[in-house]
Specification:
Layout lengths: L52 H14 L20 H7 L2 H4 L11 H18 L3 E3 L5 H18 L7 E5 L5 H8 L3 E5 L9 H7 L4 E6 L12 H10 L3 E6 L11 H4 L3 E4 L19 E3 L11 E5 L2 E5 L16 H37 L15 E4 L1 H4 L5 H9 L7 E2 L8 E4 L7 H20 L1 H5 L12 H6 L9
Parallel strand pairs: 2-3, 2-4, 4-5, 5-6
Antiparallel strand pairs: 1-7, 6-7, 8-9, 10-12, 11-12
Length: about 475
């Protein structure tokens, strides 16, 4: 480390220096002997660093400056919708009546919170074209699993126990087959055609009496709208299966098209993406699930309902798959999403889609001259490029991503979807200005030229970051998970 601001906190430790002052104890000291097993009692001091409050503040402030987020820079991570989160959402979520509410309070004392949740459900029902919504699931993949468990319960309630297969496109999110497996179901892959869309002939081949559902993202992970979605729904429904909508890409059709009108029976939403709840670093998230009428009996309980003028938790759901999360979802994220929907209004939500699609197509056309474009057609909110041209020059997509770090940009998603060689997946979102998009595109063009004229500078990137190019194989196989002094 080069200076004190960058030094690790252990290396700043000086005996006798403290950064806190606690008041004297006003209760008897607890005798731990006999209370805890002897093997769990500490026999030596923990060896914590001894530093001043100022050192602590500088240490963590320096670490925070190394983080990258939407508040500090452009974050074009494809399929993740890492867009700006309006601060009004944060302000509302911190209202005392929301921030200090306790999940074990009596329903009569939290009517305002329940009304907000109920109203949010009604908004999401309208936005998705579904008949009922649960806000319980804690994130997108959790919502996927919840939806599949309801589909499974539906088939079992009908005595249709042979329906154990979930059809998943080869361009699907990785969580789709994982969620199906955790739900106790098997997955079958359906291929994409030369246009990047689901191959209808292959779908007809794999669908059958054992089909529980087709999991689909529309627009798909290539950023392309499934033009034959109505016919796909007919194929799956004719075979007795259900159609599941992965709502990760709802940004592309928000207030323009509704999954329920496309023929979907179940949909999960990522409130922490489409509806601007902050996410990353493992949470928090919110993945509400909407269903059509025949699946309502299987919703997780309790369900928030309105009886007269009172909002209540309804536990009388004998066919429910049960509770899927302690208490009732990630309340703070739901508050943020509700604030966003109400502050944007119908016209604002339509503008979200319009600008997301405009920004993506603008960037795609500017970059098409310098990178391979696997599907030369109008995209939605995101698009994929291929680094095949650069790979022939010895520069991999990974190198391009590392080189972007030198210019202060978070790289886009790379090597996904798997059906595009050297894939580069870019989602600008609707919140970025033309100036930001142009700046990023200019750097991508510069990197493409460097691959031709000076490939070593790309191959050895990054050059300006605190941590340089790592040995990724060793890092994966022999990770260092505890502090080691240099």
């Amino acid at each position: 480390m080069h200076n004190q601001d960058q030094a690790l906190i252990f290396e700043l430790s000086t005996p006798g220096r403290i950064g806190y002052s606690l008041p004297e104890m006003d209760v008897p000291e607890l005798d731990l002997e006999g209370l805890l097993p002897e093997g769990y009692l500490r026999s030596e001091e923990p060896g914590l660093p001894e530093v001043s409050e100022l050192d602590i503040m500088r240490h963590y402030t320096a670490l925070s400056r190394r983080n990258h987020g939407v508040d500090s820079g452009f974050y074009p991570l494809g399929s993740c919708t890492m867009k700006y989160n309006p601060k009004i959402n944060e302000n509302v979520a911190r209202f005392n009546g929301f921030a200090h509410v306790h999940p074990l309070q009596d329903e009569s004392s939290v009517q305002g919170a329940l009304e907000l949740l109920y109203d949010l459900q009604e908004h999401l029902i309208e936005i998705t074209g579904m008949d009922e919504v649960t806000l319980q699931p804690a994130a997108g993949a959790h919502g996927e699993w919840t939806g599949l468990m309801m589909i499974r319960a539906y088939h079992e309630a009908n005595g249709d126990l042979k329906r154990t297969k979930v059809i998943v496109p080869d361009s699907a999110h990785g969580t789709n087959p994982a969620s199906a497996t955790v739900a106790g179901l098997e997955t079958i892959t359906v291929k994409s055609n030369e246009n990047g869309l689901v191959d209808l002939d292959d779908l007809r081949r794999v669908v059958g009496e054992d089909t529980a559902a087709l999991m689909l993202t529309n627009p798909n992970t290539l950023g392309l709208f499934e033009e034959n979605i109505v016919e796909m729904a007919e194929i799956v429904h004719a075979a007795g299966g259900k159609l599941y909508y992965d709502g990760a890409n709802l940004n592309a059709v928000l207030s323009k098209a509704r999954p329920g009108d496309m023929g979907f029976d179940v949909v999960h939403l990522n409130l922490h993406k489409t509806f601007t709840g902050p996410h990353g670093g493992g949470g928090p998230g919110s993945g509400p699930v909407g269903v059509k009428a025949d699946l309502i009996p299987f919703l997780p309980k309790p369900v928030i309902t309105k009886r007269g003028e009172e909002f209540v938790f309804d536990y009388d759901r004998p066919q429910s798959i049960g509770r899927v999360k302690p208490y009732y979802g990630n309340f703070g994220i739901n508050v943020r999403a509700y604030t966003y929907i109400r502050s944007m209004g119908p016209d604002g939500l339509k503008a979200v889609t319009e600008y997301a699609v405009l920004n993506a197509n603008y960037m795609m056309r500017r970059l098409a001259e310098y990178y391979d474009l696997p599907f030369d057609k109008h995209c939605k909110h995101e698009f994929v490029l291929s680094g095949r041209r650069q790979k022939k020059l010895g520069v991999r997509t990974l190198d391009i991503a590392k080189r972007l770090l030198d210019f202060g940009y978070h790289p886009p998603t790379i090597y996904f979807p798997l059906n595009v060689e050297e894939c580069i997946m870019i989602e600008p979102t609707e919140t970025e200005s033309k100036e930001t998009l142009d700046s990023f595109v200019d750097i991508m063009i510069q990197i493409a030229k460097e691959a031709e004229e000076n490939p070593e500078i790309v191959q050895e990137a990054p050059h300006t970051t605190v941590v340089g190019r790592m040995d990724e194989a060793t890092a994966a196989r022999k990770p260092i998970l505890k502090y080691q002094k240099a």
